[in-house]
Recover the amino acids of this structure.
């Protein structure tokens, strides 16, 4: 009986693995077909400055307009794209498109030239020998001023440094493009590793921000990451701010920037542009002016 069960279990496991592999293969094929059809594009999530109490920039996040399955988000794209190496091409499409929009907004609206754009870079890109040149070409073609651009790299990636990635980081820095460490607190990097990484910004992971009002340890982690960032002369962004309570705590802690559903979800380039326009006309979002 036990043996029978064991065999059945094995079969079930095997079938799931098989289905998963087929599913990935299907998605891989669809990503390949979707790239030349322009099915991938950036959404923009606003980031707000605590000091200016106003819009400070945007994070670009990939979305997929799938011909049959409709609107898809990164959890349905990134894992397969990473496995198959298609992430390199996808990231460059998102970088190009996001830079193109930001560059246009800077030219269209007064005062928009201090807005920043952050774009996510897959850790696997960092050691690609042509990364810095590819970024340079995108910056030149889209005419985005390099100092308006920041690249986000997850904390886990800052530990895997090699000669190729160090050279890329050096070239990116020389172009005047800044770096942000994403999802900080979830990896296991040491203080020394963070200090050696040439980033200007650290982003506190959403998991700590979500729990900071109810869980003392999360609150202390947010406080500690903020202090660590500031002691390394980095500015600090809290991601995933959903409540006024979290916002007030972050203000008391002295966090520089906030991003989250409390303000806005990631949105289309048209909606993002409206925010840039409103800011150029002197509008301040009410959520920040009253704290
Ligand atoms: P991330 O870079 O940490 O981006 C923040 C994610 O948190 C986004 O999810 C955003 O929609 C979500 N978020 C922001 N504020 C809130 C909030 O208040 N509540 C909740 N529940 N969620 C919030 P999204 O767009 O699904 O992206 C997920 C992840 O996929 C990103 O995490 C990033 O690691 C990756 N990703 C997205 N776009 C790209 C891309 O173009 N290239 C690469 N390599 N990775 C990307
Ligand atoms: Mg990010
Ligand atoms: Mg993040
Ligand atoms: Mg994240």
């Amino acid at each position: 009986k036990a043996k029978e069960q064991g065999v059945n279990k094995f079969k079930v496991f095997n079938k799931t693995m098989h289905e998963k592999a087929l599913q990935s293969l299907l998605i891989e094929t669809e990503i390949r077909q979707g790239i030349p059809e322009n099915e991938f594009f950036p959404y923009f999530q606003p980031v707000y400055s605590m000091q200016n109490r106003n819009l400070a920039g945007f994070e670009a996040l990939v979305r997929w307009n799938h011909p049959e399955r409709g609107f898809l988000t990164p959890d349905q794209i990134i894992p397969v794209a990473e496995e198959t190496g298609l992430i390199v091409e996808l990231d460059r499409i998102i970088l190009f498109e996001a830079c193109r929009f930001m560059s246009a907004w800077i030219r269209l609206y007064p005062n928009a030239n201090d807005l920043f754009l952050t774009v996510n870079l897959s850790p696997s890109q960092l050691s690609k020998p042509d990364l810095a040149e590819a970024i340079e070409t995108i910056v030149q073609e889209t005419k985005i001023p390099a100092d308006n651009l920041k690249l986000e790299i997850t904390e886990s990636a800052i530990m895997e440094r090699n000669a190729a990635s160090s050279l890329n980081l050096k070239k990116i820095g020389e172009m005047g493009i800044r770096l942000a460490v994403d999802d900080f607190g979830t990896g296991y990097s040491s203080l020394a590793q963070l200090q050696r990484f040439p980033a200007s910004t650290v982003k506190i992971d959403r998991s700590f921000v979500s729990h900071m009002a109810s869980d003392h340890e999360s609150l202390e982690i947010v406080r500690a990451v903020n202090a660590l960032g500031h002691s390394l002369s980095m500015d600090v962004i809290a991601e995933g701010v959903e409540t006024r309570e979290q916002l007030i705590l972050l203000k008391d802690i002295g966090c520089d920037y906030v991003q989250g559903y409390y303000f806005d979800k990631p949105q289309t380039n048209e909606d993002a542009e409206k925010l840039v326009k409103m800011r150029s006309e002197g509008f301040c979002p009410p959520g920040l002016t009253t704290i």
Observations:
- The longest helix spans residues 2-34.
